[in-house]
Design goal:
The protein has a single domain, classed as monomeric porin ompg (Porin, Beta Barrel), CATH 2.40.160. 3% of the residues lie in helices and 63% in strands. It has 1 helix and 15 strands; from the N terminus they run αβββββββββββββββ. A 14-stranded antiparallel beta barrel has the order 1-2-3-4-5-6-7-8-9-10-11-12-13-15. The chain is globular.
């Protein structure tokens, strides 16, 4: 399965597949807190753990997303980077805004286009802006099954790339019974075993590429990228039609920490040992 752009979340498929105009402008608000337990750097006693708080408000046409990454390190003297005396990073901030429009070409074809801007940074935002473009076509094989194809482009001072996008979506708007989306950054299979309960299992990719502070002990005025693949099991409950509460358990088999200098040239790549995590969240649809 080729990749879908990082701009696409599983909610994008829901909006793109849903023709209910009554929901088009009504916003949804979502809060989520994720914890990733300490993971040791390979060939080192230094450790890294993450706490990520997320806030998102969106409707079918616009989405605003803020994330706060609390980065904690242990055994600082044993870390493979920094000055071995002070915490190399305390926190990272991420702010993204995107807009999109899905047009119905004919009964079988729909076309989704989005444009997004984002900044990820430690202290200052200069040279930290990314631009994301996405164009996806949805072809309905039947009322339940969509084939998705298109491309994405991302501009960033460190990394700019264009990628093909291919995916498959099955009953994306349905809460009860089986549903699934295969793509990137999250592929998942859901099963709603009651009118208000659903379980989801999937594979997800999470990353942040952020501008470091001018006085960073890692790379002054440089960049850091933290990325991981994670498998998860999520339990979702809808106590009322507008409310959704969810909890997840995660296993992170692949974890990577990369540094870049101020010109955007990769300096070092560090692998971390597998670890586990958990998350809690709530979503309200007005």
């Amino acid at each position: 399965m080729a990749v879908l752009a990082g701009l696409v979340s599983h909610n994008t498929f829901i909006y793109a597949a849903n023709d209910d105009q009554s929901l088009a402008w009504k916003p949804a608000i979502e809060f989520e807190y994720d914890n990733f337990q300490s993971s040791r750097f390979d060939n080192s006693r230094g450790e890294l753990s993450l706490d990520v708080a997320k806030f998102k408000i969106s409707n079918r046409y616009i989405s605003v997303d803020y994330q706060h990454w609390n980065v904690d390190t242990k055994n600082i003297a044993e870390l493979p980077f920094g000055d071995q005396q002070s915490k190399p990073i305390k926190q990272l901030e991420s702010f993204n805004i995107s807009t999109g429009y899905m047009a119905r070409i004919n009964p079988n074809w729909r076309w989704l286009n989005t444009l997004g801007l984002g900044v990820n940074y430690e202290k200052q935002i200069n040279d930290a802006t990314s631009v994301n473009l996405l164009s996806l076509g949805f072809y309905s094989l039947n009322p339940d099954l969509d084939i998705i194809a298109g491309f994405s482009y991302r501009y960033h001072p460190v990394q700019s790339r264009i990628l093909p996008a291919v995916g498959l979506s099955y009953r994306a708007n349905e809460f009860e019974g089986w549903s699934a989306t295969l793509g990137f950054p999250r592929s998942f299979v859901n099963y709603g075993f009651a009118a208000d309960w659903q379980v989801s299992a999937g594979l997800a990719y999470q990353r942040i590429l952020a501008k470091l502070a001018k006085d960073s002990v890692i790379e002054a005025d440089g960049y850091v990228e933290i990325s991981n693949w994670q498998t998860d099991v999520r339990l979702i409950h809808r106590p009322a039609p507008a409310w959704e509460v969810f909890a997840s358990l995660r296993y992170i088999p692949f974890y990577e920490f990369e540094t870049y200098n101020q010109r955007g040239n990769r300096q070092d790549t560090y692998d971390l040992e597998p670890t586990v995590g958990a998350g809690l969240g709530v979503r309200y649809q007005f």
